[in-house]
Amino acid sequence: MGETETYTVTGPDGNEDTVELPAGLVDTMTEQGENPTHVITDIVLQAMAQQAHAMVHHSEGEPPADVVEMNNTVEELFEERFGMPLSEALGHQH
User: Fold this and answer.
1) Which residues of 20-48 are buried (b: 16+ CB within 10 A; e: fewer)?
2) What DSSP state is assigned to residue 85?
3) Given Cys at both, which of 26, 31, 32, 64 links 36, Cβ 3.0 to 4.6 Å?
4) In whole angstroms, what is the distance from residue 69 CA to residue 66 CA?
5) Could you tell me the pTM of the whole model?
6) String of DSSP letters for 18-40
C-alpha cells in the first residue's frame, strides 16, 4: 500500500472519526491556494446532499417529514456553498 494521509472529522458531540486517503489525492482536487481540508468538507456536503436526495426522492414510500425537512436544509446549504441548486448539480429535478 502507498503512503496515506489522515483526515479527522469531529462531530457536534465531540466524537471523532478518521479517514485514510492516498497521499496527494486531495491535493489533485484543490484549486491554487485552496486549503485541502476545504475539499474534504466540500465532498462531505456533496455526499450528504446526494444521500438525503436519494432518501426523499428515490426510496419506496413516503419519507418521514423530518427527513424531508433535512433534505430541504441540505439543499439550501449546498446552494449557499456551491452557488447552484442541487438539482442542477445532479442534472435532474423532482
Assistant:
1) eeeeeebeeeeeeeeeeeebbeeeebeee
2) -
3) 26
4) 5
5) 0.88
6) EEEEETTTGGGGPPTT--HHHHH
